[in-house]
Design a protein that fits this description.
alpha+beta, Jelly Rolls, 2 domains, 4-stranded antiparallel β-sheet, elongated
Length: about 280
């Protein structure tokens, strides 16, 4: 096998999505892929131009900008895939890609790349999870990130645990409604204040629990693993470890977790363990 093809296969095997393709599809993509270079400052593709290819960055850095959201800028580094619009069946690119450094890039025909990913249910599921992660990262403020730090993955606890945290406020309000109905027959002047007060407290309690769930994140960047825990009005803490200190990664699940679709991801590092507790799609992480 030529050295270039060997290098391309290594890129495939290291990519979270392309590594899930079977050997036959990897050979097909390798046969059709073409390596080219792009000078610093040159545009790889522009928004609204024909999305006729995907691009796997072999070396260098590329800036990916959304013209409709000027603040939404990502830096793509070696090993990452560009032009993912073709995987969604879009006819045009939605972003503009410009080289920040001299780059080496693999050009892969869009129709072949899309067909390859569609052939693998696991790849499709992984792409769905990664797209959700990217959208969450774009909505989340992380001022503590370093200048050259990129979020590769972010998730929260499984939504089941949000539902569980909302049940108690809802149950409490239901009890108050029942009490107000009972009191309403003998003490109508009390039932209305009880309902209004209970509704207000219930809404605040629901908002508190939702906010706490929504601000508990598990993050993987190009530098580190981070667990961010924030309790409204009290504190925000971060437990983190550099990627270079990771020793092993394992998944621990229970019978309820297997039924509902959540598990713990346990990352063992030189300085201790970090647990991504009760997350969905633990096997993808």
């Amino acid at each position: 096998m030529p050295a270039e093809n060997t290098a391309l296969k290594e890129l495939f095997c290291a990519h979270p999505l392309l590594s899930l393709l079977d050997e036959e599809w990897m050979r097909a993509l390798t046969a059709r892929a073409e390596l080219f270079t792009l000078e610093e400052g040159k545009v790889l593709y522009s928004a609204e131009t024909n999305a006729d290819a995907g691009f796997l960055l072999a070396a260098g850095k590329i800036e990916l900008a959304n013209p409709e959201k000027p603040a939404e800028i990502r830096t793509i580094t070696s090993g990452e895939l560009l032009g993912e619009e073709c995987l969604d069946g879009l006819e045009v690119f939605t972003h503009t890609a410009r080289a920040l450094t001299d780059c080496a890039i693999w050009h892969i025909p869009a129709d072949l790349l899309r067909e390859a990913v569609l052939s693998s249910p696991k790849a499709l599921r992984t792409r769905f999870v990664l797209v959700q992660s990217r959208q969450l990262a774009e909505r989340t403020r992380m001022r503590w990130l370093e200048k050259d730090e990129q979020v590769h993955f972010i998730t929260r606890k499984h939504p089941f645990f949000l539902l569980m945290s909302l049940l108690l406020p809802l149950l409490g309000f239901t009890v108050l409604v029942a009490a107000a109905v009972i009191l309403g027959t003998d003490r109508p002047e009390i039932s209305v204040p009880v309902l209004v007060g209970g509704f207000g407290l219930g809404v605040l309690w629901l908002a508190w629990n939702h906010h706490n769930w929504a601000n508990d994140y598990y993050i993987i960047t190009n530098h580190r693993l981070v667990w961010v825990e924030k309790v409204s009005g009290f504190y925000e803490s971060r437990q983190e470890a550099p990627l270079g200190m990771v020793v092993s990664v394992g998944v621990q699940s229970t019978q309820p977790g297997r039924i509902l679709g959540y598990a713990d991801v346990v990352v063992r590092t030189i300085i201790g363990n970090i647990r991504f507790n009760r997350v969905a799609d633990a096997d993808v992480i």
